Amino acid sequence: MLYGRDKEQNVLVALVDRAHTGRGAVVSLRGEPGIGKTALLDHLAAAVSETSVLRATSAEAEADFGYATLHQLLLPVLDRVDRLPAPQSSALGVVFGLAAGPAPESFLVGLATLSLLSELASGRPVVCLVDDVQWIDRASARVLEFVGRRLDSEPIVLVLSSRTSEQPSLVVSGAVDMPLEALERGAAMRLLSERTRSRLSRAQRELVLEATAGNPLAIIELPVGAIPHGPSLSAPVLLADTLREAFLARVLRHTPPVRRLLLLVAAAGHIRRDLLAPAAAEFDAAPTAELGTLDELIETDTGAIAFRHPLIRAAVYRGAAASDRRAAHRALAAVLTSAADLVRCAWHLGQAVDGPDDEVADRIDRAGRGIQVSTATAAALLARAGDLSTGGPRRYQRYLESAVAWFNSGDSDRAALMLELIDREGPPEESLRRDVLWLRSLMELHTGTPSDAMAMLGPLMPAIVEADPQQAILSLIVWEEASFHANLPTEWSGLAEIVERLSLSDNSSHDALLRLFRGACRARTGRPHKLSSADLDAVEAFTDPAMLLGASGMLRSLGERDRGRRLNRTAVRHARDTGAVIFLIWALERSVIDDIASGRLRSAGVSAEEGHRLADEIGLSNASCWYRSTLALLAALEGRDQNARDLANEALAEAIPRRLAVVVTTARRALGLIDLVAGRPDSALTYLQSPSDFVHPGVILMSAPELVEAAVQAGKRDLATKTFASLRQAASTGAPEPSALVARCEALLAEPEDAEGAFDRALELHGYGDQPIESARTRLLYGEYLRRRRRRTEARRPLREAFETFQSLGASAWADRARAELRAAGEIVEDPARSSEVEVLTPQEVRIAQAVAQGYTNREIAAQMFLGARTIDYHLRKIFNKLDIRSRADLIGVILTGRQR
């Protein structure tokens, strides 16, 4: 009987009932130890008979074992894994030790888990109950967070139970918050009466209720003999400590061999019977047959042997002598001999010693390096191997590799802790010091201050390039990215000299990329790049997203924009296929920039929304902030002024303290464009004029053209001239698109009689590029110039072309300005053309519709977007309703023809 939880029971059952309609939910069940969380989960599991129930309980002893909780949750349905798409099936096979292969990306494991649960839910809803989440391993937590954010259209309910006193290990935004409070007095009295069978007087019952403060486990487990017959204490007992003492008292009633058997279970967290038996023999413990006498403490009907409550385990483990605990771990390590148990064996070995031990450290190190399951598990093992090392370079190296693994697993805090341990040990040798600074710079780029990353990495770059050219590739990518986001100059001359000395003779991908980098160094120092067509073609064969992104950036700097964009699209595809989310986020940034430049504002918005969502999910705060600023820019271009202001101000509030120069520039550019297009140049200047000078060529090219335009219109010629000089220098590669912007600004600064030739040159150069919005803006400015010169008839053509371009691309604010100029030039402008039906769709729906038009199935689209196939089906139904169509063929027709409303 469950007392006092009617409200919570009704909410949970209602959520399961809603799942029958195809709408899932996540519930965060929180409460102190003993408050009844597990009992409520037990009741729910029994009450929802027309569902598939999966259960798992996280264990403190397994918090460092990657995917331990997830494996426990999915174990009953792993026979369905082969029904998943091959990459997803392989990912689960690898992380659960069912197949060999490289460790998959956590997002791919998350997608596979979602697909598996969705497959199971095809017959009836699925209810996942996960208890003691405060001890969940990080890998499982990330997967369940991934799944939890995607249940709106899935008949799946995920209930996560955790202690309120612990830091949350798993947080899903939008989860139903269900705090469990103490039982109200009537319910507590009924529970006590059932438990004591009238053995207590009324006064004693009152004392118990006061002492236990409505905690059900305390009411049930508090020893009757401990209940006083006189006045009670004035405050409730410390429940956790008191209950542990009560449980320990029960344990101490058993013989020493039985207590040793219990200690083995406590050291393991939970354990299979076939492993406990030999461990008991190794540890001189009672045989496993004794488990039948321990029902009040142990559960044996869940497939594994475990304690009934974490406080019982804590009582057994903490109540044992430290030497006995180490001996128990040693006995467990001795019986964990299979390849599948390598990680657990190494972990127990690490707990079996109380000081430095190089032999044990080496075994743990080998296990950590051999991990193909979870980077978080590898990080924990390498950290323990470092702790047990006797000191010196090996300890430094293990701490560093642990830090890298923690960072790759998404835990920057633990990575920073490992680096602090290296600092405490004293200055490491030069090569290790470089590696430490490289990691710190990478962490600063993603979650800190990019200018600090530059300060760390910049002085080391020549040494890195000379000492390890292959590592230099990643360092160069980070350095260039940091210099852009920090708006700092990049010193290429010293690097160029070093790169010239490198011997690049083979046909490896690393050498192909280094040859490209050498050419970029030459070009950036004003020399011919001397790259052959074969050198440029070689990078087209890359499949690694990181290499593709590096090559894409270098090709752009060489003026090979089309090839650079093509490689970026390839990087997006391969990052999606492999679940390489960090590189997907990075590649989507460039896709957004390319789409904005090419006038594909809708596509840019779709990619920006996706990138923003993914960056938020994995904690890349700087990337998330960049996407927010870019969404503000898109809103400004599309005439959604208030939305643009809100997004820009949000981005600025986060970016200014971290000195995210590109984010600040983009957000201020969005605000400035609102005023510039509205004819308020003085106000626009307050946003477009940076407090510090633009330095990085990429930052100059994105900000200077508008600043020149606003300064000229505001009559601040000195500012316009100074900015134009920087723009000319940044555009010195001679590529047509930046050269067109230079010519346009030259026209704005020229004397009236000389401006026309510069406008003509700008339009000619635009013809060689692919920047329709910039081309239309040049036409708009040219038409305004002609109208002011009283050449109204001549002004109409460029103004009309500008208007039509802005209108077709969805740049509404600029279309309004061009329309007003056309009317001033004497041309009657018809009402705006009807918009495309696709405009009624959300960015996510547009992405799905585009994928359908490209011929992908629902399953394939789900894999690309890291969603469930049922979610894709749900969105397709919404798309069909919005567009009033009935089939995929109809949808393809709308996408391909741009049908108007």
Would you kindly provide a brief summary of this structure?
By secondary structure, the protein is mainly α.
Major sheet attributes: 5 strands, parallel
Class computed from helices, strands and strand pairing: mainly alpha
Helix content: 55-70%
What spatial order of strands do you see in the largest sheet?
2-3-4-1-5
Compute the number of strand runs: 8
How much is the radius of gyration in Å?
Answer: 32 Å
Mean pLDDT: 86
How much β-strand is present in the residues?
A: under 5%
Q: Give the overall form.
A: globular
Task: Describe this protein with a few key phrases.
mainly alpha; 5-stranded parallel beta sheet; 45 helices; 8 strands
Report what the structure shows.
The protein is mainly alpha-helical. Strand 7 and strand 8 form a beta hairpin. Strands 2-3-4-1-5 form a five-stranded parallel beta sheet, with helices on both faces. It has a three-stranded antiparallel beta sheet with strand order 6-8-7. The chain is 65% helix and 4% strand. It starts with 5 loop residues before the first helix and ends with a helix. Helix 5 packs across helix 6. It has 45 helices and eight strands. Mean pLDDT is 86; it is low at 229-238. The radius of gyration is 32 Å and the shape is globular.
Layout of helices and strands:
Elements: H1 6-19, E1 25-31, H2 37-47, E2 52-57, H3 68-74, H4 86-95, H5 106-120, E3 126-131, H6 138-148, E4 156-163, E5 176-179, H7 185-196, H8 202-212, H9 216-221, H10 239-252, H11 256-268, E6 270-271, H12 273-282, E7 298-299, E8 305-307, H13 310-319, H14 322-335, H15 342-351, H16 358-369, H17 375-388, H18 393-408, H19 412-425, H20 430-447, H21 450-457, H22 461-467, H23 469-486, H24 493-501, H25 509-524, H26 533-538, H27 545-557, H28 561-578, H29 581-597, H30 601-618, H31 621-637, H32 641-658, H33 661-677, H34 681-688, H35 697-713, H36 717-730, H37 736-749, H38 752-766, H39 772-788, H40 792-809, H41 812-824, H42 843-853, H43 858-865, H44 869-883, H45 888-897
Parallel strand pairs: 1-4, 1-5, 2-3, 3-4
Antiparallel strand pairs: 6-8, 7-8
Helix pairs in contact: 1-2, 3-6, 4-5, 5-6, 10-13, 11-13, 11-14, 12-14, 14-15, 15-16, 15-17, 16-17, 17-18, 18-19, 18-20, 20-21, 20-23, 21-23, 22-23, 22-24, 23-27, 24-25, 25-27, 27-28, 28-29, 29-30, 29-31, 30-31, 30-42, 31-32, 31-33, 32-33, 33-34, 33-35, 34-35, 35-36, 35-37, 36-37, 37-38, 37-39, ...
